[in-house]
TrEMBL record:
The lineage of its organism: Bacteria, Pseudomonadati, Pseudomonadota, Betaproteobacteria, Burkholderiales. Pfam families: Glyoxalase. This is Dioxygenase. One of its GO terms (molecular function) is dioxygenase activity. GO terms for biological process: L-methylmalonyl-CoA metabolic process. It comes from Cupriavidus necator (Alcaligenes eutrophus).
Length: 307
């Protein structure tokens, strides 16, 4: 079964534009041949691989499967008429490659999700339970705190046919639907349990990247990260707010190519034994936000990636 989201490959016209943005976002770059890869501090797992190309495009998504499972996936894919190949990219990666029904490349490898940096949760004084006694919650140096994301949690891909994608990712790849909004939006998780969604699909005229989302250590970090990016000249797109689907707090920033990068914290986690989890089928408005400092702007759902 698919156990983890490993990394995404994105083609961009200028790697250095990407380096500046993702560094400001809090990721650590390292050169891999002709590519530029990014990791989270203290975690030995690439999260983004930028490759040079004529225009910005989400080129592939890499998922981790269990040891010894690749052969089963190959058989299953071929039984469903999906061609398994070496992949179209110059850089070789262990694993198998194929295209989903939208024609987007997927890479599967036998890899676990690497441990994330341990973050000590802040002590919080909640009504009736005052645990932080005689200690300040904020220091004078708090303004200067820089944000360092912990891991890539999920992405949302645009799709011209969300139902077809859900059918493929559940029936062929074995993922599960956590919540959806009809044929407009669907959130999928690993069958092994974990985050409410590691991938989601949003309806559009064509494929593309809506957003990448990185977990951070708390609410403060979401806003400190967003503020730093705005100070660096990037545009806040939506947030602060709290989603309904997934329940996570969020803030989205536009990347240099008009996709979105999200900081999140406190996402719903669903166990492998998920008998009690009832997926919702609601409206996009119902699942988008419990609250946000302002409504989502009209361009929040636009696909800026060229077909
Ligand atoms: Fe998200």
């Amino acid at each position: 079964m698919i156990r983890s989201l490993q990394h995404v490959g994105i083609t961009v016209p200028e790697l250095e534009v990407g380096r500046a943005f993702y560094q400001a976002f809090g990721l650590l770059p390292h050169v891999q041949g002709n590519d530029l890869a990014f990791r989270c501090e203290g975690r030995q797992q690439d999260q983004i691989r930028l490759m040079s190309g004529p225009r910005k495009r989400l080129s592939y998504v890499s998922f981790g499967v269990g040891k010894g499972e690749l052969e089963n996936f190959t058989t299953r894919l071929e039984q469903h008429g999906v061609r398994v190949s070496d992949g179209p990219f110059a850089r070789q990666l262990d694993g198998i490659w194929f295209q989903d029904p939208d024609g987007d490349w997927i890479h599967l490898c036998e890899a676990d999700s690497q441990p994330t940096r341990i973050v000590t949760p802040p002590e919080i004084n909640t009504p009736g339970e005052y645990r932080r006694i005689g200690k300040r919650g904020c220091g004078l140096e708090s303004h200067a705190r820089r944000v360092s994301p912990l891991r890539l949690g999920h992405l949302i891909k645009f799709s011209p046919d969300v139902d077809r994608q859900v059918d493929f990712y559940t029936r062929v790849l074995g993922m599960k639907v956590s919540d959806r909004a009809g044929s407009i939006l669907a959130f999928l998780r690993s069958a092994g349990g974990g985050d409410h969604h590691i991938i989601a699909f949003a309806r559009s005229s064509h494929t593309g990247l809506h957003h990448l989302s990185f977990e951070v250590g708390g609410l403060d970090e979401i806003e400190l990260g967003a503020r730093h990016l705005v100070e660096q000249g990037y545009r806040s797109a939506f947030g602060l707010g709290r989603h309904v689907a997934g329940s996570n707090y969020f803030h989205y920033i536009r990347d240099p190519w008009n996709s979105l990068c999200e900081y999140f914290w406190d996402i719903d986690v669903i166990p492998k034994d998920d008998a009690d989890w009832e997926p919702w089928d609601a409206t996009p408005e119902q699942v988008t936000a419990v609250w946000a400092v302002s409504p989502p702007p009209p361009d929040f759902v636009l696909n800026f990636e060229q077909p």
